[in-house]
Design a protein that fits this description.
The protein contains nine helices and no strands. With about 200 residues, the protein is mostly helical.
Length: about 200
């Protein structure tokens, strides 16, 4: 279960209301513990209405995870494009965006982090491909930093996995009413990530 207090369901319409209810319920009960009736109740619609938008609960889960990954990739890629040309600046910009995503989109991120095991084979392949795309953004920066002599780590791929997992784990424990704002946490993790790749001064 997510450490965050479950947010109220969106007051939007159509597919988004269903997705918001599903995210809320899956954070409370897990995928297998959430029924279509639970989702309908949270969205204040009938179960039959859900099937106008989604063929199954599996399709809802896949939609949640794919949308979240597309948004995370867009957010981190945008941060990368706005950063300076130095690998250290680029890595820290990526990490700040990654942490911000996992705090500001905490419930979506929790479903993505915990429910890949619940996807069918086709959904899992799609999500894994998007995760690989996300990882490559980090890997390209770290490997270029090593090649250009900016980073001294002997294990760039391990460092990338550690950085990604470190940022992703934020969604499991960060609280909006806790002592750190998302921006403060993002800055701290950007510094930690840079230390992991051993910057050459």
């Amino acid at each position: 279960m997510c450490a965050a207090k479950v947010a109220a369901v969106s007051t939007g319409t159509g597919r988004q209301v269903i997705l918001d209810s599903a995210v809320t319920n899956m954070n409370e009960r897990g995928y297998h513990g959430t029924s279509m009736r639970d989702i309908a109740r949270g969205a204040d619609i009938t179960v039959a209405s859900i099937y106008h938008h989604f063929a199954s609960k599996q399709e809802i889960l896949q939609d949640i995870m794919v949308r979240a990954l597309h948004d995370a990739i867009a957010m981190t890629r945008g941060a990368l494009l706005r950063s300076g040309g130095a690998p250290a600046d680029q890595l820290q910009s990526l990490v700040r965006a990654w942490v911000m995503f996992h705090t500001t989109r905490q419930l979506d991120a929790m479903v993505g982090a915990t429910e890949i095991r619940s996807l069918d084979d086709a959904g899992r392949r799609l999500v894994v491909a998007l995760r690989d795309e996300q990882e490559h953004l980090f890997r390209d920066v770290v490997e270029r930093g090593v090649e250009e002599g900016d980073f001294a780590t002997e294990y760039p791929r391990d460092a990338v996995r550690g950085i990604i997992n470190m940022g992703q784990s934020v969604c499991t424990w960060w609280h909006a009413d806790g002592p750190m704002k998302p921006e403060e946490l993002a800055e701290r993790y950007a510094d930690l990530a840079l230390a992991m790749v051993k910057p050459v001064v």
